[in-house]
Amino acid sequence: MANKVIDHQRLFQASSKPLWWRHPRSAFYLYPFYALFAVAVVGPLLYLPNTVRGIKDKKN
Where are the domains of the chain? Predict the structure, then answer.
């Protein structure tokens, strides 16, 4: 197994991108994270108008 430390060091230090975008596979991790984060933030905000008006969820 080859030691890739020097290669990775060159890759990370030569790039001007933000640290979390420097690795070639970072998009595979970041895009799903951003999508889940957006759903987690926007989902509860959809119920905010009902909360402000005092409308409670119907219990069946």
Answer: 25-55
